[in-house]
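Notes to self after the call with IL:
- keep both proteins in one doc
- input above output, always
- annotate only the second one for now

Protein 1:
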Amino acid sequence: MAKPDLNLLVALDVLLAEGSVARAARRLRLSPSAMSRALARLRATMGDPLLVRAGRGLVPTPRALELRERVGTLVRDGEAVLHPTEKLDLTQLVRTFTLRTSEGFAENFGPALIARVAKEAPGVRLCFVQKPDRDSASLRDGIVDLETGVVGETTAPELRAQALFQDRFVGVVRKGHPLGKGRMTPARYAAGRHIVVSRRGLDRGPIDEALKPLGLERCVATIVGGFSTALILARGSDLIASIPERHSGNLRAGMHSFALPVALPKITVSLLWHPRLDADPAHRWLRGCVRAACAA
């Protein structure tokens, strides 16, 4: 069965509104004969005369009356789909966005982001969810609107990514810790008791690889799943936490931080989203808010 010509919906909508082939032709900028052919095709397709002669004019059939409102709605919806998106009115926007971030990102950048969103769009709510892994399925399935993290081999290739900032690892100890005084050397650093942050429970990482050529090895006292937990433990003990500097700015207040005495590459933290949301005005606005919060 051949598919119907959807252009006929526009012709039908105008014919039912005007009740005249001549007026419908003028409105659609067609010749009267072209409009008459369109009406003939509509009658053949729908199996109904739709408009019948009554005196000097045309009147709709019961079937045409039944379809008039429905056809008008279909045509308006179609036109809305094909028109450019209207300018976003943030004051009227009501929406909940879900952001998948590390706990350090939410704790350090969340307050500024929430304040900015509340000021510009009071009806918008942010939902922060934990990031236990780097699986991109939640973005692909539409469960999550935005994600922050480091782009790696496991990142789905179809995702959009935009760099937010670069970060580096620093060492953090409690106020008054012996490492708070004197020159920091690889040997002094390695000799302490360390907290390792690993979502997968690993006790080794890039820092240990950097110490290995120097013949040094850290003494790992405990392994935790997040940076904030590491800082809580370091604040109340003599343990050493090694965490990203910008991710932990607020949480390190009152503690002693120092540059690691080994060379490590900086990490680039990016904003990730699915391409289907690329042109969505509200989503584009939110991406700008996240970038502004990180830049601040």
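Protein 2 (the one to annotate):
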Amino acid sequence: MKILITGGAGYIGSIMVPELINKSIDITVVDNFMYKQSSLNHLCAFKNFNIINGDIRDPKLMQKLLKDHDLIIPLAAIVGAPLCNKDPFSAQSINHDAILEMFKNLSKDQIVIMPTTNSAYGAGDKNNFCDEESDLKPISKYAIDKVEIEKILMQRENSISYRLATVFGMSPRMRIDLLVNDFTYRAFHDSALIIFEGHFKRNYIHIRDVVRAFIHAIENFDKMKSNIYNVGLSDANLSKLELCEEIKKHLPKFTYVEEKIKKDPDQRNYIVSNQKIENTGFLPKFSLSFGIDELIKGYRMLKNQNFGNF
């Protein structure tokens, strides 16, 4: 099997690609290195690793690459509402237009395993509960585009959509702006945080469990294909205040205050069921507590704001 990973030098790809290389799978990564990252340098000695410095918006490049691969993992994206709002043109061309063009150039036999987002649930039902059958209520452009792409993706037989929870954990191409990563960074370096609408709940998942979920899908594709799965920690449907309590267990000097006048521009608030993927035999290994410990170690080395999607 030959796998093409777009955006493979990014936050998730920088953990995923080495894991797949170690399984002796032929991997080609295409990335435009917009963050000037060097997260895959250590893989250049492996014969089953190929790297292309290119842009997924280049139709000739992508047509050439796609025809030579059995499985595609499209990670390349402008990720997160703030960055999409800052650069809506790139968000539209990368998150939407380039993905649609990619689908057009795939044969029906080629496999796609794609990350989408559980942020598409918006606020869930009256109890804020969501599973894969729940109505989608995307708030941000990022989530709206992911919903549209997912609908088209699921018209293909050989496809899986993973609605990822908010990812956390260390990566060679770090993102400090993700919620757990961000709160832990502030707790470690500033020992203080102001929270807006602290009762809003999110679901979370460690980056290494995201990678494990993709490997699980590759190894169990025939029984999992043509489906959408939430991918998150079932014991980590936490409010912002509850998340701060967890961080405080690791950093006792951490102080946080809820600001009750202002609203959070991100109005997502949901509790997510991950039962469907768990029924396929996948269970996360990395707890929120493990991830906070890992982040604290990492933040002993990092203290600048270049590590994020800002």
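Annotation: Residues 2-299 form a domain with the Rossmann fold fold (CATH 3.40.50.720). The chain has one domain: 2-299.
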